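Researcher: First entry.
Model:
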Amino acid sequence: MASLASPSLLSSLTRSRTGRVSVSVLSYSCCASRSFRRRAKCNAYSIVANRRVFLGFGALFVDQIVTMASGSGGVGRSFVASARPRQGVSPVEQILKDVEWPEQFPFKDEDFSRFDESPDSIFYSEPRFVTHIDDPAIRALTDYYSKVFPPSNTPGVAMLDLCSSWVSHFPAGYKQERVVGMGMNEAELKRNPVLTEYIVQDLNVNPKLPFEDNSFDVITNVVSVDYLTKPIEVFKEMQRVLKPSGLAIMSFSNRLFFTKAVSIWTSTGDVDHAWIVGSYFHYAGGFEPPAAVDISPNPGRSDPMYIVYSRKQLSA
C-alpha cells in the first residue's frame, strides 16, 4: 500500500493557520490497482467520503481537538506541551495530568463510525479462543490487576468484566463472591473460569447495563474500549452500577480488529487514545479525574499496554 503521506492516497493536505497539518481523506486511490489481492486489501481499508483522519499525530491531535472545541482559534493553553515526553516518563502517563477539558464533548457521531458497520452479532458469532495481546502484555496487565484489585475472596466484593471473553487476565486463583462477565459470544463466556455468571449483550445496540445501582466494586474492560460506538452512554452506566469509590479500569494496546474499531481510534495514536478514554470518563460525569498508566513491558519489542482508570465519586 502507498505511504499514508503520499499524494496518491490523500485527496487534500492542508495547513492550518497555526501551521499544523490537517488531513481530509476521501478515498484510497490504491483501490484502482491491477492486482485482485491489492484490491481486496484496499477494500478492507476503504474510507467513506468525508471521513476525518488524523493519522496518529499524537498530542498534536489532542491540541487541535481542544482548540476546535473551544473555538479559541489557536489562542489559549496548549496540550502539546503537557504531553511532550520527559526522560523516563511515558507521554501516555502525562496526557491526562492537569487537563482543561473542552466545555462540550469534542467528538461527533461520525467519529464513532466504523469500516464494517454490519451487526456485531455476526462478527462475534463464532468463538475465538485466542488472546488478542501477546504474553508479555498479558503478564503486565495481570500484574497490574494484582496490585489494584481487592484481595481475593473479600466478602461482599462484586466485579464486572465488560466485553469479556474466555479469559479475563485476572491473577491466577483470583476469586470473588460475584464476578460477572458481559460479552458477545456465549461459548467464550462459558469457558471463562473466573466468572460466576455471564450475560450476552451487544453494548453498541443496548448500552444499558442490567444491574442495580451501586452493584460493583470494580469494572474491567480489556482491549475493547475502542469498539464502543456509544461510549458516553456505556460510561454513564458504568458510573451508575459502580459502588461509591468503585474502580473502573480500561486497558488497551495497539492490537485490534481494525474494521470494527471506531474511526476516532483507528485514525489516532496511543497518546490520543489515553486522552480519548479519559474524555469518556470526564463527560460521562460522576467520576474522579481519570489517570493513565503505561504498563508496556518491553517498549518497542512486545505489545504496548496502557491503562486509563478512574473511581466513582463518593458524592455521586
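Researcher: Second entry.
Model:
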Amino acid sequence: MSSWEPQSKKRRLDTDSGIGNGILNTKERFKPTSARDWTISIAVPTSIIASCVTREQRTTAAGSIARALAIFSVDEVVIFDDSPIEQRPRNFDPDAYTGDIEPAHFLEHLLNYLETPPFMRKVLFPIHPNLKSQGLLHGLDMPHHPHKDEWLPYREGLTLEAPPRSGKGTAVDIGMPETVTISEDIPPKTRVTLKMPDDAQGKPEPVNPAEPRTEGGYFWGYSVRKAKSLSDVFTSSAYEDGYDLSIGTSERGVPLSKAFPNHNQTATFNHMLIVFGGPRGLEFAAMNDPDLGQMGIQGARTKELFDHWVNVLPNQGTRGIRTDESLLIALTALRRLWDNS
C-alpha cells in the first residue's frame, strides 16, 4: 500500500460538484483536542499469537490489539520478533506466501488492514490467506474512517484511475457520493490526506498525513512498523531522536504507583514507548536478541533497556495475562501520563 505526502509547497485543489451538500452540511462527531507533536507508541512481540491454535484465534487477537490502539489513540505500533533465531523464517516473500502464518507479517497485515478506511480496503488489500477470517474483526470507527453524515476538516482519500471531470489532475475517492479532483498527477491506488474547505466555495488541499494530529488536534490512526528484535525497536525508531520515555511492562516490575507517584501530573516527553512482552516476558525477547546478548543484557538486566520497568497489575488473580488483555490494562493505567482529564 502506498501513501503520498505533499512537497513543502502546497498546491490548491479543484473539487467536483457536490462538496457543499455532501460534506459541509453534516455534523462533526469527533471533537479535536489540543494540537500535539508528541506521540504514543507501543511495541508487541510476535509470540502473542504463538499460542493461538487456529487462524480464527490469531485473527481475533490481532483485532483486539487494533481495538486497543484505537480506543487509546495510540500513534504507532511496533511488532518485534522475539522467537529463537533458528525458528525465524528466511527469505520470506509476503506476496508469494500462501502457507502457514508468518507471525510478524500476519500482524502487520491485519493491523494495517484495520487502520485503513473501510472504503479503501477492497482496492488496497487484495485477497490473501491472512485475511481469510477478516469477517471476525470488529471495526475501529476512528475519526479518519468516514461516515456520510458527519463532517471533519480532514479526509483520507484514494486516487482513482478514471480521469476527473475537468480532464486535468487526479480524481480522489473520499468515501462520499462525489469524488474530488486534485491538480497533482498522482498514481492510482495511492492514499492521500486532504484538508477540506470551510465553505462550499473553498478548495481542499493535500497535507502531510500527520497534520490532522499536529495542527488539527485529531487522532488520525496509527502507523505499523516491524522490528527484527527487541533492540531493533529502539535502534530503528521512525523518530529522528528516538523515544525519550520508554516503559517496559513486566510482572517483575515495580507498581505503577511507585514508578509514577504523582497521580495528577502528566509525564514530560516527545515520543513515549510502551513495550509489552509475550507469554514468557520481555526477558525471553532479550534472550533471543543477538545484539543484546553481545551487550550482556539478559535475564534480570532486561529492565536496563527502559526508563521505567513497571507492573501495571500487581496481585493479579490468574497465573498469566494475555498480551491483548495486558494492553487494555496497561493503557488504562498509564493513560494519566499523557491525559489526566
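Model: Note on the second entry: The two ends are 36 Å apart (CA to CA).
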